[in-house]
């Protein structure tokens, strides 16, 4: 796959710097995978290893500066970043923090503010004690939250980003269409999970970052469990919810299957879930509030508790499986062009027995476009 | 797979509480996936979603307390944890932090210390601003680092844990043996990566959490890159380094392959790498220092820079792809029974062209046992 051009990252950096100027920030300090990748293009699964810190500093002007372990220099050197400062890691001393602090002292005047990504979906990827050391070493500069600046900018995707998400969704869609090849009565759920991940890879996923789901008679207990070895049985509803990765961008949607003919309750619940996601898609355009999307779905599915403990019924999607915004009844913020949103209505059929459906849409100037190929009202049937 | 019995988690908790008492900690606050899973058994891929905080409090006495989003209650309810307190999430207010603070105030007297896992491989999984709010809400309790207590306890694995790692390694080993089915001259590297992940699933991996590698004429540039679409060519050395997951435990080792007959330099380098890992395994027993393992390998491979920018040549392995300890020349700490260690010697053949080999051993009372089936000195050849 062709990497994004440097102009993509330069545009992101310029938008961040405009926001930083408005907020009085002299620099941004990035410490986590999606934040660093968003401004550099640095894509590696090596973040699975928690042993080394990684830093990128976005200065008030000019391109970002990478302050990273030497093991990453070769790969970062293939990005648009030219100022790459490396430290030995792991190491017994504070040389990594010292190099970072030196960089921050160069870019931020005494008394200046260093912004850290803040709000939902963020954390500072540093050991507890190192964080105190870094504050000491930066001398008269102060760390403050960025007020959600980085998250807000990431919410509005470029056309190039949406293309990757659409491709990831298409890959997952083709894999879902092939579920009858690997699942049916008598097949243990863990074997279904393995087989489904194989289908995703076969259809072109770079990797399968997420697979959860459930199976049970007439519904399932939750949507986050790993698979058990219990064989599928007639009357089960099987749900698979996957995040496949293509070029660093995620899909996130699910599909439900009835093992054998569905009962009336399951068939009707599925039709309702499909109607709910379609109702939300129909009103989705720039200006629609997140709460309006919530209510468009919840008004159709509200037999159970709101969100049936999921706490929201949809969210942003892109470089991570879940991003802001959250579709919640009190969210008065509005959709903006370029947002990619999952619509994830849930029905609680009885206490501890739910069905969840999920689709993906992109917000365009005049409405919304499906990125997932939307499921039909009739639940798919496995033999 | 059978879950660990409650006695496994009770023993872990008792060991933590002994360490807490010695360190004067009234509670431990856990916020990350491996820490929470270690004390509860809570296993889900849902951590891929960064949108919600999760907390477990280990009190001075008695079982841990889960303070988690409602979406996790069903799955946590299947663990040995009985005290499960849930909050709505995502939410616009501080109710999650308030519930956590209430729990901490119950368990920790005013003036008491709350330990946070600290040191390499740790972070506090909370947004920047939430961390300040939590400190305010806990009223006269102080957060301190745990001095590496949690990490140190996790380093010595139980027999049940080592069994899972051994199974993960066996799965990866069977997949490596089948690489000739999916790789050879003319096959694009990204297709090799997809095919290899499929083999891992086919051999029984729950999921493939990590795959990196490289391919290039006579060696590769780094060990953390994702795949490109470049086809393998005769003379290439292909390296695949994978972390497959079985029951929540990882493998982590690699294999090298020569596309067509290897040149003398590559053949010799491979033999040297194998000799290095065997030399380290031969001296590995309780009491051997991490530095001694380092030097056992490095004395054979030291044509290049120490560690050729990887910064260490081996590390702990278990619930994460990489854990402490690190095999570094200055690490005077010693191996202990139950440690699982990767041996990862590297040779720099020329600037920017390296070969890396990796095996996994478990430290037993009287020596070390291979968990990976060790590679022979002769590099495997693909047609």
From TrEMBL, chains A, B:
Source organism superkingdom? Bacteria
Residue intervals of the Creatinase N-terminal domain: 12-70
The protein's matches in CDD domains, at most eight in alphabetical order, are given as: APP_MetAP
Q: State if Hydrolase is listed as a keyword.
A: yes
Known EC number? 3.5.3.3
Query: Pfam families under this entry?
Result: Creatinase_N, Peptidase_M24
Q: Which GO terms describe its molecular function?
A: aminopeptidase activity; creatinase activity; metalloexopeptidase activity
What PANTHER family would the database entry show? AMINOPEPTIDASE, XAA-PRO AMINOPEPTIDASE P-RELATED
Protein name in the entry? Creatinase
Q: Which organism is it from?
A: Roseisalinus antarcticus
């Amino acid at each position: 796959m062709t990497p994004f051009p440097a102009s993509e990252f330069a545009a992101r950096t310029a938008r961040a710097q405009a926001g930083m100027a408005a907020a009085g920030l002299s620099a941004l300090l990035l410490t986590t995978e999606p934040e660093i990748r968003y401004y550099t293009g640095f894509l590696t699964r090596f973040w699975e290893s928690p042993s080394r810190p990684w830093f990128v500093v976005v200065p008030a002007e000019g391109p970002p500066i990478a302050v990273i372990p030497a093991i990453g220099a070769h790969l970062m050197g293939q990005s648009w970043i030219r100022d790459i400062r490396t430290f030995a890691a792991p190491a017994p001393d504070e040389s990594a923090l010292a190099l970072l602090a030196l960089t921050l002292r160069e870019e931020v005047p005494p008394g200046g503010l260093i912004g850290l990504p803040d709000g939902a979906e963020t954390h500072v990827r540093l050991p507890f004690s190192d964080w105190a050391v870094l504050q000491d070493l930066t001398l008269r500069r102060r760390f403050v939250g960025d007020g959600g600046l980085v998250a807000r900018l990431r919410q509005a995707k470029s056309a190039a980003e949406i293309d990757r998400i659409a491709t990831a969704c298409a890959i997952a869609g083709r894999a879902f269409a092939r579920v009858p090849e690997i699942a049916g009565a008598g097949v243990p759920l863990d074997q279904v999970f393995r087989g489904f991940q194989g289908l995703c890879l076969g259809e072109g996923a770079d990797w399968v970052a997420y697979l959860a789901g459930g199976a049970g008679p007439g519904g399932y207990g939750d949507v986050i469990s790993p698979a058990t070895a219990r064989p599928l049985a007639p009357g089960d509803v099987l749900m698979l919810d996957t995040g496949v990765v293509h070029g660093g961008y995620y899909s996130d949607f699910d599909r439900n299957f009835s093992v054998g003919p569905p009962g009336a309750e399951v068939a009707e619940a599925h039709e309702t879930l499909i109607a709910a996601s379609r109702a939300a898609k129909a009103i989705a355009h720039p200006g629609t509030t997140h709460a309006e999307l919530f209510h468009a779905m919840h008004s159709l599915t509200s037999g159970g508790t709101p969100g049936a403990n999921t706490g929201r019924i949809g969210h942003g999607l892109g470089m991570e499986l879940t991003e802001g915004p959250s579709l919640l009844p009190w969210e008065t913020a509005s959709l903006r062009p370029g947002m990619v949103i999952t619509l994830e209505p849930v029905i609680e059929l009885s206490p501890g027995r739910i069905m969840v459906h999920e689709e993906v849409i992109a917000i365009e100037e005049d409405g919304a476009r499906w990125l997932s190929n939307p499921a039909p009202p009739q639940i798919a049937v496995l033999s």
